[in-house]
């Protein structure tokens, strides 16, 4: 495998790892990633973007050219030494990868990129980290990118309760039950629950919290209810106009209230 930078049809650089030993039989060429920290994952997903040459577009290689390559992985608790002896037997096979679209000599001349994207599930992963390895057995491949990720249900707020980041179970058919915690100034009416699905989505909300006395639900938080005396600040005199400004109102109020009271003498009002 060789690290090569090429230009696509829009003259943008593409950094790739390539191999193309299609003239000789019994190829066994390996490319290995660096050590990848597992974090909280129980299984990971590997997204591969690559191009692969159509063997029919290459003359005299009918018996030696291949159109697939293999993906492997190896788990370890620590990174391997810088120059270890590579032992294929230490790696577990994930899958054989084939292209949906292969490119030809004509595509090369036109600089057309027939890019394939394949995603494979890897796991269970139980040790601190792992390596990925790619085995070429005689194909003409350019590996453009490798993306490794895992799914999780992100922290969220529902029904006045907060729920933490949660990693789905290894068994994709089962859900993880997660108990929520009521937000500040809220209390349980029924225990709040959500279920974390295999694709990282929250499902089946159950239970709820309610705001305590003298608080109300405002955009998912419990805010203090203000009395009129708290809401209206001290008056400010503007000539003969007294302006009551809502100094005590906070950002929870959707609009500003202003009351203007004209100061009058008692005799301005008729007496009965």
From TrEMBL:
KW Signal (keyword) present: yes
Pfam families in the cross-refs:
Ephrin_CRD (PF25599), Ephrin_lbd (PF01404)
Where does it reside? Answer: Membrane
Enzyme nomenclature, EC number? 2.7.10.1
Which molecular function term from Gene Ontology is one that the record holds? transmembrane-ephrin receptor activity
Cellular component GO terms, alphabetical: dendrite; plasma membrane
Q: Which UniProt keywords apply?
A: ATP-binding, Glycoprotein, Kinase, Membrane, Nucleotide-binding, Receptor, Signal, Transferase, Transmembrane, Transmembrane helix, Tyrosine-protein kinase
Q: Where is the Eph LBD domain?
A: 1-158
Instruction: Classify the main location.
Output: membrane
Task: State the Gene Ontology BP annotations.
Answer: axon guidance
Q: State the superkingdom.
A: Eukaryota
Q: Which membrane topology describes this protein? A: Single-pass membrane protein
Q: What is this protein called?
A: receptor protein-tyrosine kinase
């Amino acid at each position: 495998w060789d690290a090569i930078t090429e230009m696509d049809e829009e003259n943008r650089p593409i950094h790739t790892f390539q191999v193309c030993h299609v003239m000789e039989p019994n190829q066994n060429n390996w490319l290995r990633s660096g050590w990848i920290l597992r974090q909280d994952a129980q299984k990971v997903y590997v997204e591969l973007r690559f191009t692969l040459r159509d063997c029919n577009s290459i003359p005299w290689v009918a018996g030696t050219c291949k159109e697939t390559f293999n993906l492997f992985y190896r788990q370890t608790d620590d990174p391997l030494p810088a120059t270890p002896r590579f032992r294929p037997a230490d790696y577990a096979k994930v899958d054989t990868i084939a292209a949906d679209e292969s490119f030809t000599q004509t595509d090369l001349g036109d600089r057309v990129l027939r890019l394939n994207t394949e995603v494979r599930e890897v796991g269970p992963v139980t040790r601190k980290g792992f390596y990925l390895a790619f085995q070429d057995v005689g194909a003409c491949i350019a590996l453009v990118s490798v993306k490794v990720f895992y799914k999780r249900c992100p922290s969220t707020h529902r029904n006045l309760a907060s729920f933490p980041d949660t990693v789905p179970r290894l068994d994709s058919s089962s859900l993880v039950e997660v108990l929520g915690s009521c937000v500040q100034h809220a209390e349980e009416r029924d225990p709040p629950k959500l279920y974390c699905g295999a694709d990282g989505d929250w499902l089946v909300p159950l239970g709820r919290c309610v705001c305590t006395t003298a608080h109300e639900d405002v955009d998912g938080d419990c805010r203090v209810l203000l009395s009129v005396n708290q809401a209206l600040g001290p008056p400010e005199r503007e000539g003969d106009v007294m302006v009551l400004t809502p100094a005590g109102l906070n950002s929870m109020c959707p609009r500003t209230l202003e009351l203007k009271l004209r100061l009058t003498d008692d005799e301005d009002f008729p007496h009965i």
